[in-house]
Amino acid sequence: MTQDTEKKPGMRRGLRLLLIGSLALNLLVVGVVGGAVISHQRGVFGGHPDRFGSPYVRAFSHEHRREMGKALRQAYRQADVDRHGDRQSFERVVALLRATPLDRHALREELVKQASGSAVRRDMAQGLWLEKVEAMSGAERAAYADRLEDSLKHGNRKKYDKRD
Questions:
Q1: What are the DSSP calls for 55-83, one per residue?
Q2: Number of other CB atoms surrounding residue 55 within 10 Å
Q3: Which of the four, 6, 36, 76, 90, has the lowest number of CB atoms within 10 Å?
Q4: Could you tell me the pTM of the whole model?
């Protein structure tokens, strides 16, 4: 019995470096694509595009954002905005989408109701925002405009100091 004491030839150094480089490049591509997907899902300004305020409200200081939120919730309660009705409306749309044949008229009617409700809430938010801006001094408004401009340039990535 003879033992095979011969060593098998190893991978050449150049080939090993090529494989390591290829792996590094693949990981880089996966990271870039993953980051793009996550960024796209978040949207440029975050939130919902039909809602008033993402960049406008984000440019406020932390305290002003809290005040706006409280004022808006209070305005919704006073105007008897039916948030539960929104959920029911979406459920009706789901049922209409599943129905055969599709009732285009009923679906269109439900979408118009949703748009109307969104417009009412957006108008309320715009009114509160305008009141807040009108109450600012010229210097406060200029600083707010700077933060708004910065918010538009940087989107969600810019986090403002809570002390602003």
A1: HHHHTS-HHHHHHHHHHHHHHHHHTT--H
A2: 19
A3: 6
A4: 0.54
